[in-house]
Amino acid sequence: MAMWSDHPNEECGVFGLYAPGEDVARLTFFGLYALQHRGQESAGIAVADGTAIRAHKDMGLVAQVFDETKLGPLRGDFAIGHTRYSTTGSSTIGNAQPFTLESYLGPLALAHNGNLTNATELRLELLKRGVGLTSTSDTEVATMLLLAPEGPTWRERIEYFMDRAEGAYSMTLLMRDALYAVRDPLGLRPLCLGKLGENGWVVASESCALHTIGAELVREIEPGEVLKIDAEGVHTILRRPASRQALCLFEYIYF
């Protein structure tokens, strides 16, 4: 059994897309391909069609994990994707992303770049509540933390998560009819917003992923900002910035 580690263990690539009428899985594939330098251990895509979420993930590079047979069934208007890189901890399919599960508010998929510095504390808290955890990833902890409160909306659950979580995170959250983008209050991990055509919107760790699929960079998502993207457009639903900003230095060195 892999041992849980609370050391920083991820510097990944995240991607999210709303593009009605487009092949969102294929566009996400190309977006992840552009983010391949951020993670080479595993890759995954989850797609929502308004009713359900379908996903595929596996160990390996983006081009190794996905081919026509894997992309074909992933149909919908929304998608998120992830490439994983870890410096410590286990590199297994159990830690590959996006994480997907069913919840009281419907299906959920989550992709995360960063690490929660209080993940061990949060993990023990969840285990004491009887929550079963199946991986050594702090992303699973983040997913379960989002489901912990009884708030009736995802906004309330995301706000609860931001109140409890410490450390670095840029996340994309996929529901059956909406996409959320979340950046930590310090802005330690990057996340940007792009426009695709007339009705499409994209979020990604780096703008190179936007350009790869023909999207235009709109702006950086602000530290502590939460965006909701759906058929009605893009809306900032929450702002929780810290008193200072602190983009990780390694973003300039390695990426």
From TrEMBL:
Keywords: Glutamine amidotransferase, Glycosyltransferase, Transferase. It is an enzyme of class 2 (transferase). Pfam families: GATase_6. Residues 12-232 form the Glutamine amidotransferase type-2 domain. GO terms for molecular function: amidophosphoribosyltransferase activity. Its EC number is 2.4.2.14. This is Amidophosphoribosyltransferase. It comes from uncultured Chloroflexia bacterium.
